[in-house]
Every structure is written in structure tokens, then in C-alpha cells.
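Input/output pair, single chain:
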Amino acid sequence: MVQDTVIIEEGPDSKRMKLDDEAKKLVQSVLVKKPGGESIINEYNRTKALKDETRRKMVNILAADMTEKNGGSPPRLVKEKYARGIVALFPYLSDPYSKNGFEHYYDGESGTGYLAWRIKTIQRNLAKERRGSFEGQVSYAERGSGGPTVARHSKFTPEIVLSEDECKEAIAFMNHSADEDAIKKKMKLTFDYRRKMVLDPMQSSDLLTIFPRLKDIKGLVSVYNHI
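Output:
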């Protein structure tokens, strides 16, 4: 008698659990091996949260590991795996309002998030090292081309100028928040960051990719003069 073989396909929940487990083990192994990593795990175990400084340290460690193993431009799936691993290892760091819970660490659709920003910083630093010193170079805006990237005197000066890391945190917050008032406040705080983007011909075309809320929250573009 011939018996039919029944093949049981893996369901979506099972696949997700498998991905979460693999990603969790990856992030945990990196943090355990790297200097300062265990203190991050210990802080989370004590408080079920991470201080901003600790989170930045974790992101730096993971981004460095990612680029060491995958080169200066890690594939999207690799970045997603590290982001997934963070919230799998530290569930209270998950974003309940996003699709997968880890988009604030890396969002493959927009290419944003803490890990993405850190990797871009690493890429910029590597590029600077290759090109050498930039002192004395004249910027594109200073050549007087008359185009949209020419430096202009701004009518608005933010009361507080954020550091680069603080700007990235604000951007990640805005991209995953539904609180329009809070987003508008963050937009004011990141005004100088956007102005620099507009004046940089290499970054100006990415403005609405980095700040997508300019498109979907009424009045932001007109209020802040497109930056």
C-alpha cells in the first residue's frame, strides 16, 4: 500500500518566530563580544529600557559590526535583521505603532532609522578619509550659481541647535509618530539640519525622503519655507 506524504508548510507566524530568534541571537552575540555590550544588556534587564546614551552606544556597536562584516553599504535584509534582533532581544524597545515594531531602528521602505543614520555617518567618515582634508575648498553654494542651493539668510533661527545624533533621534521620532503637535516641535528643532541639506547639492534631493512628514502634515512646508 502506497502512503501519500503530507508536507506541512511553515506558517507566517512560525516563519516570523524563526526570523526573530535568529536575529535575537545575532544581536545578543555581538553585544556580548563587544566592549560595553554586556552593560547595555544589564541596563535593560534592570530597567526594561535604555537611556538615550546607552541606546546610541548600542546602535554604534551594531552598526560597526554590520559594516565590518558586510562592507560600507550593508544590504537591506542585513539591516532589517539587526533591527529585528534589537526588539527581539529587548521587547520593550519595540514601537507598537509601526508595522514590525523595529522600523525606528531601520525602516527598509524609507531607508531611515537609527541604524541607517549611523551607517551613513560611517560612510561619510570613510569618504572623508579617502578624499583627505577638505580645508580651503569652496562649497557649491559659495560659487554663486544662483540655483536653489545658494546660501540665503534665514528669517527663522531655532532657539536650540541639536547635535547630529539628536537630529537623527528627532527624525526617527517624527517618522513613526502620530502626534502632529510633537512633530511640528521636532520640525522646528531640526530646522538647521534641513537648511544644511537644502544647501548641499548631494543631499538636497533627499529632503522629502528624510522628512516625509513635510508631505502629509498640512502647513509644514509653507510654514518652514520648504525646509
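Residues 14-132 form one domain. Confidence is low (pLDDT under 50) at residues 133-157, 223-227.
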